[in-house]
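Subject: sequence -> structure tokens, single chain

Hey, anyone have a minute? Need the predicted structure for the following. Not urgent.
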Amino acid sequence: MIIGDPKQLKHISSLPVRQDRQLLVKHDLVGGFGGWAYSVNSLFDLSSGLCRSEDIVCLRDHHRSHADIIGFSNEQFYEGRLRIATRYDRLHTIQKDQAAVHWLDVRGTVIRPSSGGALNEEEAKRVVHEIERLVLHQGYRGSIGVVSPFRAQANRIRDLVFQNDALVERLSALNFLADTVHRFQGDERDVMIFSPVVSAGFPDGAGIFLRNNPNLFNVAITRARAALVVIGDRQAAANSGVEYLARFAEYVSELGIREERDQSTPAEFGPEYPPVARPELVSDWEKLLYRALYRAGVRPVPQYDVEQYILDLALFANGRRLDIEVDGERYHRNWDGELCRRDQIRNQRLIELGWDVIRFWVYEIRDDLGGCIERITRWTTTD
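Reply:
Had a minute. Here:
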């Protein structure tokens, strides 16, 4: 059994390509065994090309990160196949009311050091300021890491940190590390601060490096368990010409909009099912249940967003929250073990967030609508 992830960093070989070829020739392995060249192929690359497609197993359950942290990579790199099974009660969050991913906008100037790469002094100072805020002022006790695609930036941040004796003393107990992405592969921290460096004066060569290494970015933003803090020039990232970085800037902005919406008071609607953002997800049975609830004096909210989930109907009563799901024809048609597992994970997360969950099959609404209404009404009167 060989375990690997082709969407993360490839192995680093110290074997020169020329020497590798010479060894293949020496042992008469050139014909038919070129793929065994270790200087260019990893063991995972080799094995995945030799076995049958049905023998490649995708490990889908993700247990490390908050859903918002892994959400971008799940869509950008893994085609939405990951199932977020993280236990949120084990995460060392920064603040309960703060988003798991947030961007601190810093517009700096990028220089190219004599040693190569890229360095953004303003961004580096803001990173250290944020660490001081978390550790010295807020008293955060989880582990902290800082990652950057560029060695010069990681070194500068580390140098600035070690100029503050009080900060160094506190960080020594928090498993602190500031380094490049390669150092963090296979590692993780409760809080990760990502310093992209991209801003005014960003060298063309550095831009080419980022565009050619999307897997490096995938590793960088998925090391965090509870919180990912991006410190950099958001507008420059959006206009960088690095497609995945521009999409990520947009993704973080959308998370901020969603957070504001989630904190707002739910609107109250009329007796007919209202227009919603995703009408293609609505069944006639949901509309029927909504109208019946309204006649019974119950005021549900259709298509209510909670983190990455869209609830069919949400109900708020006496400081409690209820997710009402209608499993209709579309649900039956797609039913399999994968769907069952995703629903188990979804229910677990909603319960962790303080929601109750009631599911109805369509035949229950069709054959016993009164009983369904009574069950929901009974929930509203229960303490």
